[in-house]
């Protein structure tokens, strides 16, 4: 007489629940993730830019004595960094020119990592990962870029 033993890996079991759970999670809209990524990293850089303009003399002194970015004069590097932080983070928050803005902030993150604060690599890795996602995957459907792309495609088809 053949008997069947109950096995935990059959459908309706733990494995089935895990498979169903994964399938449900994979339905989560990536446009919401992209929006969260854009806003999270935009806030970090925008706050940094606001700190820089709050005390400009101190900012230039930091670039001159602590940051010491190679090649660029301290005042120019301070202007460039501040403009990039404020401008690119505003673009990211809106989802406008997202790939360009994310690439600019990714470049800035690499400069900070390589030349300014290499010991802060966990923060830079986090920011860089988010920015690399946005450069490679784009802003998602909840963005001005998406609206513009939809209009361009509609115009081409008519």
The largest β sheet comes out as: none
Distance between the termini: 71 Å
Mean pLDDT: 92
Instruction: Output the structural class.
Output: mainly alpha
Shape: globular
Rg on CA atoms, Å = 23 Å
DSSP summary, beta strand count: 0
The helix tally amounts to 7
Uncertain runs? none
Helix-strand topology string = HHHHHHH
Oligomer: single chain
Strand composition percent: under 5%
Task: Specify the helix fraction band.
Answer: over 70%
Quick summary:
By secondary structure, the chain is mostly helical. The chain contains seven helices and no strands.
Output the keywords:
single chain; 158 residues; mainly alpha
Task: Explain what this protein looks like in three dimensions.
The structure is a single chain. The chain has 158 residues and is an all-alpha fold. It has helices at residues 14-26, 30-54, 56-67, 74-94, 98-116, 121-137, 144-157. Helix 2 crosses helix 6 and helix 3 (56-67) packs across helix 4 (74-94). The chain is globular and about 65 Å long.
Set down the secondary structure blueprint:
Layout: H1 14-26, H2 30-54, H3 56-67, H4 74-94, H5 98-116, H6 121-137, H7 144-157
Helix pairs in contact: 2-4, 2-6, 3-4, 4-5, 5-6
């Amino acid at each position: 007489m053949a008997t069947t033993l109950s096995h935990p890996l059959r459908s309706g079991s733990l494995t089935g629940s895990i498979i169903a759970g994964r399938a449900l999670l994979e339905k989560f809209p990536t446009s919401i993730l992209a929006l969260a990524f854009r806003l999270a990293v935009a806030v970090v850089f925008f706050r940094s830019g606001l700190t820089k303009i709050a005390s400009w003399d101190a900012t230039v002194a930091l670039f001159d004595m602590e940051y010491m970015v190679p090649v660029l004069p301290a005042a120019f590097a301070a202007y460039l960094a501040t403009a990039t932080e404020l401008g690119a983070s505003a673009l990211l928050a809106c989802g406008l020119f997202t790939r360009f803005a994310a690439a600019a902030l990714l470049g800035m993150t690499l400069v900070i990592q390589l030349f300014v604060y290499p010991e802060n690599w966990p923060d830079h890795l986090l920011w860089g990962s988010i920015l690399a996602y946005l450069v490679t995957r784009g802003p998602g459907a909840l963005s001005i870029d998406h609206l513009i792309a939809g209009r361009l495609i509609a115009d081409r088809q008519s």
